[in-house]
Every structure is written in structure tokens, then in C-alpha cells.
Amino acid sequence: MNSDVFISYSHDSTEHMERVRVLADKLRAEGVNCDIDQYEDAPAEGWPRWMDRKVRDSEFVLVACTETYEKRASGRDEAGVGLGAKWESGIIISDLYHFEGNNLKFIPVIFDYTDRLFIPRPLRDTTYYHLGKAAGYEALYRRLTGQPSIEKPPLGKVRRLERERLAPLPEKSVKSTPSMLLVSPIDEELWQNAEWKAVAYGRKRGSVPLLSFGFKNELAARKIFQGWRERFGTVDDESELRIAVIEGQIAGQAGTYTVHITADPKAVRKRLEKQGVRLEDHTVISGSRFLRIKADDDALSNFQADFAEHKHCYLAPSLLFEGQGAGKIFTDLALRVSNVVFREASDISQRDLDYGVIEGPPNRAA
Fold first, then answer.
1. Beta 241-247 vs 210-215: how paired, if at all?
2. Range of the domain at 332
3. Are 200 and 318 in contact (CB under 8 A)?
């Protein structure tokens, strides 16, 4: 099977353009009719029509996902740069809209594992391929050439089974007592075992900032973040996970600020209503966790400025080594969050969502 394939990508760097060209060369060498803009000097019809034709007529379009491509696809990059990627991604998003979400044509590919975080939103539910590994390239090649790794066996005949007749169950009265509904993002046992002891910040000029929670128990920390990713996904689109950074003095607590983790009540209500849950039929239970921090540097103010610029950050666990502070950050468990609020302790009243941090000891359930 000889498929027409086009690669849509952004010109991030010379290195990135080279690895895209190497991919296209390899596919062509192995019988896949792959095309990229680097094979053209100046198409007679002009670049916009050329790109439109390639996206429209190709059987498959590989979308090389990077942070730059995702910014341009979502319209968050500065004006006047990356026009090619903006044009192609706009055509792709328009096609997906008219396909009503049914997609076999547009295939996300990544060269670095961390780039999976930058798959454009309309393609997040699509199978992606990590081309930094040989197995990832082979799986992609099988898909492009119609060679599945496992062949579905033919359908057999249905076996007839004996049936057992059971006596009807006695009728029971129905009670209307509300049930308990747990919506907390905090698994108390896991957090107790994980031993949350630190908060750290990572920044790189022009990039989305990183917020890291430092734990002493790696296994429990991993389970916490794996649970969050299963619940919220790699991107918390609904802003259900809420992180409050509360500056100012708190009576009886040393340190300069507190980090408080909880579920956002409005986001939880919205999700449950979408699922058809009648809140009046349940007693809603939630919980939270907070940690008092002593900081003498500008890390927090830098993070606050970066977050204000990007409107979101990456949240990841890290492992603390005895006497050495933060060690390895587990970026493979990162998720992108946008519900981070910065507050003053003096502004928190008794009925406030963050009031528990005012009265409770640090690193405990609020």
C-alpha cells in the first residue's frame, strides 16, 4: 500500500527541521510517498494553496507536536511569525470540525517524550507515536502502510449454554437517605505515606513555568500523580484541581507562605451536573492538603510573574534526598493546570475555601 503522507510542523530550529526531513526521507525510502515543504523551493501556486492542497489531498497528515506548534495551533503565539504552521493547523482544525470528531487522517507524532504535553487539543484523544523510539516508528509505519501487528481472527460460532431459573427476589422498601459523594483530590493515606515536604519552581525564559511538589516517598508520590492524571488528564481543562498560594503571616505558623491543594467547588459541581448527578441526593465530602513554606529568595515572585504571562503551569512530583533538598523531577507524571490563585492571608475570612490553612497545622488535611 503506497499512501500519500504530508508532515505538518513548525520551524522551531534547524535541528527540528532536520529531524523532520530525516523522517520524511526514511518514509520515502521505505515506500511511503511522504512530502514536506523542505522538498519545495517555491511552489507555482504559492505556499498557502500548496499547503491547503497537501493537507486536503494526502491520505494521512502527520502533525509533529512541539510547544511552538501547539502555541501556533491554539493562536497563542505572537503575530507575524510561524505563518505556515498557523495556516496548516487552522486547516486541520477546520477539517476535524467538519468531520464531527471522526478522525483517521491526522496523526500526532513526537520526537521527545515531553512533547506529548503539546499535542493540540483537538488531537489529544488520537493515538500518537513517539518517534524517538524504534518501536514508535515501526508502529507508525504499520499504520501508514496498512500492516497491523496483530491480525484479527475469523469470527466463530456462538456456543449455546444451559440456563438456570432463579426464584424472584423479595421486594424491599426503597430508602431516600442521601449517599456520601467523595470529590476530594486528596487520598489521605497516600499523602500520609508520600510525606510532602517541599515546593520548588522551574523556569525557562519564554516557556511555561513548572511547579514541583517534593516528596520523600517516591512510590506514594507517583501514585498521587498517576491518580490525578487518570482523573483530570494531562491537562486539567475543567480547572477542577485548585492550588492556592497564600502569602503573609499566620499565627502559630512559621514560614512566609502556604500552598493549599483542594478541589474547586464550582468545577466539581459543573462536572457532576454534566454527568447527571443530583447533588441534593448526596452528601458531598471533600478534603485538602496544605504546606507552610519558608522561602528567602525570589523563586515565588518569579513563578507568579511567569504564571501571569502563560495563564497555566506544569505540575510534577519530585523526590527529596536526605540533606540535599529536591532531587529528580518526574516530568513523565506532569499535568498542566490553570487554577492557581495567589492570595494574602489577611484577606481570608471564616467561610472562605482557604480558611482551613489559618487554623490548622502545616502539611495536614484542612
1. unpaired
2. 179-365
3. yes
